[in-house]
Design a protein that fits this description.
The complex is a heterodimer. By secondary structure, chain A is mainly α. Chain A is built from nine helices and no strands. Chain B has two domains: about 70 residues, no CATH class; about 210 residues, MetI-like (MetI-like fold, Orthogonal Bundle). The chains are: A mainly alpha, B mainly alpha. Chain B: This is Peptide/nickel transport system permease protein.
Chain lengths: ~260, ~300
């Protein structure tokens, strides 16, 4: 399990790097070779414009990685700041912030991201913005809950009575203790950000043609499913392997960092 | 008597959330970059048309007045009019909502009927090859998003085997593929949850007592273990209904199922923002209601929380 996860992640990272430097042409159109089955020349076949599916899948991973890393970093930063601040200071501010998070959590799954992406317009920047606008809530909730507990710990009381400022307590005495839980959460949520990005692109709300993305490729692939089933299978299997690897990576991280989770998948 | 008070208290805490949801959906139209009227009508629209649409959407009024009208109309069940077809949105919702509801309930049934028995079996065979197999399959299924599982099911059952219709909603069998797409992912999650929950319960002291009493293994399982193990599932099923509703957006698009999800995606493509707003609002409100209902149900079912506080 562990090796599978690491190998798959390493494989995709390597593929992205190799493709980047070898100058693969994901957007090269060849109308004499449309919807071809896998062959020695095109390992995963070609799409409806004769473009190499493998090159496009690898380019799609690159875009997907970029979106996932940016969104995870931004949402973590915003979510943790809000959560720790609210949890440490408590009072009215905490109530208001938590009320806001409950409103965001009232929208199931990626519905809110779909709504934001719809009104903001398509494109990779708006896609990232829409995912960031909705993604910070889980981190805020989680870090607030942890902070509430950590605030009562003896070492925090000691630091406070020695005159440490609120900022110092939050940054030096609380944050380091909740970072492992948040890292595990981040590992799992990276998979869901990846799925969300693909979902939005699938609906035509994310990355725009001719730029390759898994969601958009699947959308095209479904249209040509009757004549070229290899297209939808190839893209889907690649995506599944990566999502699975990230989820298993999260499991490994959870066991390593010894975070108790309640019945997480 | 006391539980009624708890229920009323619950409803009181939900109201601010509902109000927030209304604010956020109202704000959606105002988040459109530039002038929403330009985006909806395109640049070639005549000034008269633009003026008319602006008045129809109330965008020529101050924001607070707009919000007041929005809330007042919603209270009357009036979601406005589709810009594209000029049909009242309420009518569109009334047509689409039952379809989504049927799809979600069917998917939920599939999820429960497959997931819980598999989870029980997996827990009883914990450590054996059957358990390993179930775990491997369910982890893989859970990693399959709807927009990939859907096409695969379509390819296998509709195109290659020809057993089920590809898409649309012409006959009763049409519901099977979209419901399987949503339900199988759910069943994978429920399998894992049931397994973990049951294994935890089987380690409890009272199970050992029941066994020591000489009860048959069947009775221990049915009367003692399962009751406690399946209780947390009520909450999980409630939460999963949310992802079913959101997943329905994509599944309905793939299978041309005329529900709220398809309506939403169509409205986005046509830039019919009032319809988009209405769909988002209806799905979010359903989700809030389902969560509250499961919460109340859980309190009612679990004797430990019934009299707590």
């Amino acid at each position: 399990m562990k090796t599978f996860s690491l190998l798959t992640l390493a494989f995709w990272l390597l593929a992205v790097l190799v493709a980047h430097y070898a100058g693969q042409a994901p957007n090269h159109i060849d109308l004499d070779a449309i919807l071809q089955w896998p062959s020695a020349r095109h390992w995963l076949g070609t799409d409806d414009l004769g473009r190499d599916i493998l090159a496009r899948v690898i380019h799609g991973v690159e875009v997907s990685f970029l979106v996932t890393v940016v969104v995870t970093a931004v949402t973590m930063l915003i979510g943790i700041s809000i959560g720790v601040f609210a949890g440490y200071h408590g009072g009215r501010l905490d109530q208001v912030l938590m009320q806001i998070t409950s409103i965001f959590l009232a929208f199931p799954g990626i519905l809110l991201a779909i709504a934001f992406a719809a009104v903001l317009g398509a494109g990779i920047n708006n896609l990232i913005l829409a995912l960031c606008l909705t993604g910070w809530v889980t981190y805020a909730r989680l870090s607030r809950g942890q902070t509430l507990v950590l605030r009562e710990r003896l070492h925090v009381l000691a630091a406070e009575s020695l005159g440490a400022s609120a900022w110092r307590v939050m940054l030096r005495h609380i944050l380091p203790l909740l970072i492992s839980i948040l890292l595990v959460e981040a590992a799992y949520s990276m998979a869901s950000v990846m799925i969300a990005e693909a979902s939005l692109s699938f609906l035509g709300l994310g990355i725009q043609a001719p730029e390759a993305s898994w969601g958009a490729m699947l959308r095209d692939a479904v249209r040509f499913m009757l004549v070229a089933p290899h297209y939808v299978l190839a893209v889907g299997l690649c995506m599944m392997s990566l999502i699975l690897a990230i989820n298993l990576g999260g499991d490994v991280l959870r066991d390593k960092l010894d975070v108790r989770s309640e019945m997480q998948l | 008597m006391r539980s009624w008070g708890a229920i009323i208290k619950r409803i009181a805490t939900v109201l601010p959330v509902v109000f927030g949801v209304l604010c956020l959906t109202f704000a959606l139209l105002h988040m459109v970059p530039g002038d929403p009227v330009d985006v909806m009508l395109g640049e070639s629209a005549s000034p008269a048309d633009r003026f008319a649409l602006k008045a129809q959407l109330g965008l020529d009024q101050p924001v607070l007045a707009q919000f007041g009208h929005y809330l007042l109309n919603l209270l009357h069940g009036d979601f406005g009019v589709s810009i594209h077809t000029q049909t009242p949105i309420t009518q569109l919702l009334v047509q689409a909502y039952p379809a989504t509801l049927i799809l979600a309930v069917t998917a939920l049934s599939i999820g429960l009927l497959v997931g819980i028995p598999l989870g029980i079996w997996s827990a009883l065979k914990a450590g054996h090859w059957q358990d390993v197999m179930v775990t491997l399959v369910s982890i893989r299924l859970a990693a399959m998003p709807a927009f990939w599982l859907g096409p695969v099911l379509m390819l296998v059952f509709a195109v290659w085997l020809g057993w089920l219709p590809v898409s649309g909603m012409d006959n009763a069998a049409s519901i099977l593929l979209p419901a399987l797409t949503l339900g199988l992912g759910l069943s994978a999650i429920l399998t894992r949850m049931t397994r973990t929950s049951l294994l935890e319960v089987l380690n409890e002291d009272y199970i050992r007592t029941a066994r020591a009493k000489g009860l048959s293994e069947r009775r221990v399982l049915l009367k003692h273990a399962l009751r406690a193990a399946l209780l947390p599932m009520v909450t999980i099923v409630g939460l999963q209904m949310g992802s079913l509703l959101a997943g329905a957006v994509i599944t309905e698009t793939i299978f041309s199922w005329n529900g709220i999800g398809r309506l939403l995606v169509d409205s986005i493509e046509k830039r019919d923002y009032p319809v988009t707003q209405a769909c988002v609002l209806v799905v979010a409100l359903s989700y809030v209601l389902i969560n509250q209902a499961t919460d109340i149900a859980y309190r009612w079912l679990d004797p430990r929380t019934r009299n707590a506080r």
